Fold each of these.
Amino acid sequence: MAAFEDCNWYDYPRYYDVVFGADTAWEADFLERVWGRHGATKRRGRTRVLEPACGTGRLVIEMGRRGYDGVGFDCNAAMVRYAARRVSRCKGLPVSIREGRMEAFRVRGRFDMAFCLLSTFKYLLSEVDACSCLQGVERVLKRGGLFLLGLHLTDYERRRPEHERWVGEQGELRVVCNTRTWPADLTMRRERIRTRLTVTRRGVSERRLESDWQARTYDLKELKRLIGKVGGLQMVGGYDFGEAMPEERKLEEGMSYVVAVLRKS
């Protein structure tokens, strides 16, 4: 069997879409449910949504199909091109895609809701960059607007690597994604993540790709302390996204994947 190629797997948006595309409608349902519960439902005009680090655009495009005006941005040029092509194929879709970084982005206008799921926020490795992202989102939200921030919390007592596996299929293409996360470096507040993709087409091996990452770690106390540094955002709700059907609940240590609902005051 061929060895894995070192790469940045975000340079392969088609494979990324195969792995995560099946959850898009479910995630959009969740966003709408949270907006209906916590958002300002009596605004005039269409609801505007923003997705920092939108990747292939699958989620912001799905929100556009549901009647929202959407803007998504990502720092990976391959992802941006892929997402923009998807938008161009949907005539009249009220969504725009652009290149930008989470910690330093510019968008026009104000938004009712922003969302950043799948722990993408943890790629901001410093406190300065994390704060800059939150402040940037706070600036472009309307008063009362929401930011849904989803990330895996770190168990600093864990001593063994964790493993997650996803399998996606679209037509003749099948992608198996295996992700391993090593225990956190407490001093640096970093964790190593390795993602391996095994790609087959019609049952024949096509690519074997491997990416290594560093991510910033957060337990619940660290997350709340970070949010507290941005005076204009208040946590008004939380969801345990590790559940099959996430329900609103008080966030507690020991939860794995959480979504914090932040409102601009």
Amino acid sequence: MPGVGPRPLAPLFPEIGVIGMVPTRWDSSWSSRHFVLSRLSQYFQVVWMNPAHGVRDLLNKGKIVHRKQEFSPVPGLRVYTPEPWLPRVHGFSWVGSQTFRRRLQRARSLLTSRGATKVVLYLWRPEFAPALDALQHELSCYHIDDEYSFSDVELPIADPEERLIGAVDQVFITSQAMLEKKGGINRRTSVVPNGVDYRSYAESHPEPDDLAGIPHPRIGYTGRLKRVLNWPLLLELSARHPEWHFVLIGPKAPHPEIEAPLAELEQRANVHILPGKSVKDLAAYPQYFDACLMPYVENDYTKYIYPMKLHEFLASGTPVIGAPIPALREFQGFIELASTTDEWSAAIARCLDPMQNGADERAMRQSIARHHDWALLASRIAATLAHRLGREVSDRFTAITGERIDRREGERRHFERQTSELV
């Protein structure tokens, strides 16, 4: 029929519901939790719980933007914004616990009203641990995608997080270094690295207008401009190599220590600082760089991170240079690693050599990224959750995904198109 698109893609297991307890709104900059939960909705019903308004926000009504309490950006996933009468309360333990419990019940009702009979609590921060006692559920998991102390120096695991890790039924950890620190608490712990929306970064895009006027060679970074970047290194490299054009794309974090180096870099003719982009638009930039940078400082915070931009850069096929933090050392041989300014200069020069950057090298990088597509990583998470829900669910998961995977390929592509349009 004219005007009728592909039928909506329903979850494979609509009787299983996932409540994603997250620290940011759905309409914030996309992070690993957006990619994971949106793709899990191909398997299960998912509710993304936006953070509740605080009492002070309610008193100052000008700060609140009223939106629909519940909407569905993709099939299988619903975003729930807690009602103003269920605010986040600090300092009043009984009132706070009651509104917290009621918000969870509201999220659960969105699942049960659509036929979900089993509920999975999917926690993304230690502060959501009280949910384990506040809501009846069949399974709980905790996804560690960062070192939440955010400390530059090593600190022991905080007691609340250690208790949470031990209490949940399943833990997902993004990096091997984090596994070594926190993986011994719960025997049901799996490593699931950060990934990439491979199709978005690998397919050809028109050159962005604000990049077209910047001369080559372009040495580029995309992402938040923050204190974990090695600003002295960027100052030294751009001063030493006026023939190279350094392109930094991203919003500025509210970190006072980056203001001075940023101001100095902005005065240089071979440094170009562009504003942040949507996730959808950002995918076009790395393929028009001549080399991609991950210039992190090396400290006790960055040793635990697993940068999403690693596989985003690799998916573009462009050569990549990074600091030798543990997550990047795993890909030595596919990316260049450098510590000192001399090493960075030499590594960038190698990446700019056409003899070192042929079609075979680009295909190799893209092959690595393809195996880290978010759809593949989410399927691993979904299989793990099905296994934790018991033999019956696990067997059905294996049977259904095996039998229907080919027939659902067209639907999967339709779903990915819908998801990419959101970001």
